[in-house]
């Protein structure tokens, strides 16, 4: 019995590693080629696996793209403890820094204009990130960091739209190297209009805040 359990655990661990390998290879290929330019053949070649191994874990490249898009928020963990408004700031700055070398986030950035090909509008990356921002901003409003008359859902959409546009322009103009600076600039303009005076004085906006030590 113990031997069978051990073999089952080894098999499960191997399956987890294979799935992760396929997902990372797909992220790299999507980041380089976009959704339309990617193929399951390119992905399996990048992963060093057979088509059968890929199809065991993912039905098609649409399923792979959905997995990558849905994983985006989980890959952005700020290096500092924070909550509410500061957490919303830290999330965007961490995203801006990690986007430079995380293949999953790079794939998400490349796929943003092709999401209608593989995922519904109710769960695309815009909706995911808007929900993340809205939760932080709602908490901030409850704790009197955000003015009571502010529509936190509208601000959440605005932040996501601004960050999306910032990464597109940064990609074209600087290879995204100045993306953290662009995100910081966005908050410098936005915060005085939504934050209470006491909260505004507490917020930390240095663009290096989202960068891991």
From TrEMBL:
The entry's DNA-binding region: 39-58
InterPro entries per the UniProt record, alphabetical: ArpA-like (IPR047923), CprB_TetR_C (IPR054126), DNA-bd_HTH_TetR-type_CS (IPR023772), Homeodomain-like_sf (IPR009057), HTH-type_TetR-like_transc_reg (IPR050109), HTH_TetR (IPR001647), Tet_transcr_reg_TetR-rel_C_sf (IPR036271)
SUPFAM superfamilies from the UniProt entry: Homeodomain-like, Tetracyclin repressor-like, C-terminal domain
Pfam families attached to this UniProt entry: TetR_C_45, TetR_N
Keywords: DNA-binding, Transcription, Transcription regulation
HTH tetR-type domain location: 16-76
Name of protein: Gamma-butyrolactone-binding protein
């Amino acid at each position: 019995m113990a031997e069978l359990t051990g073999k089952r655990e080894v098999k499960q661990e191997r399956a987890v590693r294979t799935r992760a390998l396929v997902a990372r290879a797909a992220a790299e290929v999507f980041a380089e080629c976009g959704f339309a330019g990617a193929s399951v053949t390119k992905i399996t070649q990048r992963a060093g696996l057979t088509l059968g191994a890929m199809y065991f874990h993912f039905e098609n490249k649409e399923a792979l793209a959905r997995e990558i898009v849905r994983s985006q928020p989980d890959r952005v963990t700020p290096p500092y403890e924070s909550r509410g408004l500061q957490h919303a700031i830290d999330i965007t700055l961490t995203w801006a820094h990690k986007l430079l070398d995380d293949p999953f986030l790079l794939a998400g950035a490349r796929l943003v204009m092709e999401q209608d090909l593989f995922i519904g509008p109710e769960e695309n990356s815009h909706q995911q990130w808007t929900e993340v921002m809205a939760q932080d901003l709602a908490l901030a409003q409850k704790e009197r960091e955000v003015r009571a008359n502010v529509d936190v859902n509208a601000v959440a959409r605005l932040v996501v739209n601004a960050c999306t546009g910032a990464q597109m322009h940064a990609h074209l103009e600087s290879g995204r190297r100045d993306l953290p600076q662009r995100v910081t600039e966005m908050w410098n303009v936005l915060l005085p209009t939504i934050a209470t005076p006491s909260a505004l004085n507490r917020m930390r906006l240095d663009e290096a805040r989202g960068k891991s030590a």
